[in-house]
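Supplementary Note 3. Input sequence used for the single-chain structure prediction.
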Amino acid sequence: MKALRLLAWKSEPELLEMPEPEPGPGDVVIRVGGAGACHSDLHLMHDFEAGLLPWSPPFTLGHENAGWVHRLGPGVAGLEVGQPVAVYGPWGCGRCERCLAGVETYCEDPAHAPIPGGGGGLGLDGGMAEYMLVPDGARRLIPLPDGLEPTAAAPLTDAGLTPYHAVRRSWPKLTPRSTAVVIGVGGLGHMAVQAIKATTAARVIAVDSRAEALEMAARCGADTTVLTGNDAASQVMAATGGRGAEVVIDCVGVDATLVLGASVVRQLGDLTIVGIGGGSLTTGFFTLPYEASVQTIYWGSRPELADVLALAARGMLTPTTTTYSLENAAQAYRDLHEGKVNGRAVVVP
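The predicted structure, written as discrete structure tokens, is reproduced below.
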């Protein structure tokens, strides 16, 4: 089979011929229907080096995957060959308190995970291939609801799940009288806008540096759009009557967006950093409104992914995608790096 492989840190991926994976006890092999290309993969290619992570290349890229059950290893129950499924991407130990709650992102015993702190496409072979091996597949695969195909489901496993988790943890503050600000309306941000509109009655202000991204945000339900610039903060404050936003979700995470988020979050509000742009935020007694909370998040839980898939099957979450063949998967990453992708890039073998 063909697979897009990262062979070394600080290198471009290569499309190579690889053997089809063989399932062992408890394992499931899926035929890949879609694999999302994520900005975090660009960091793997360009920014990481030996020793920074507990795993290293070579491995097949693609941590955002869905497809059809292809082969079942011995002892797998509850799945059938041909069944459409989504892959829950973070692979923890499966037995610590966090994993038992379905939050394998925050596994507390990574030494007993398939790979410490990683998963398929993150140290182990991912979904930018014709087939993908999923260890302990009965736990890490979620059957797709009727009406949802793997190509559409693939970006939901990260680009849908991560912002949904950010929104869900702030649900108590997203009342009909509140405002949420989404900074960066790309692959994750346009899903954050939809998650807020689908699950709350809050107003949404979308902020981006690109006019086309703001047009997409408006189509996704944003009530107000703001083009980044010197007066972006004042525009957001004016739109909230000078109070600020109860919830700010930063899907970029560079210095400028973090400063913007801190300047528009309201007292008692949440500033949630989703994007891993490498920025930092100086905090002190007078640098943030009183009782404003700042948090980072990583992915989401397995039950939340089931929620996301259910919302998508009902037409309440619809990712905007740009599709590429497996042969053009490397181009997807080049386009992503150059800011040419509308919504989420999805590789379809």
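The chain has two domains: 2-158+300-348, 161-296. The chain has a mean pLDDT of 95.
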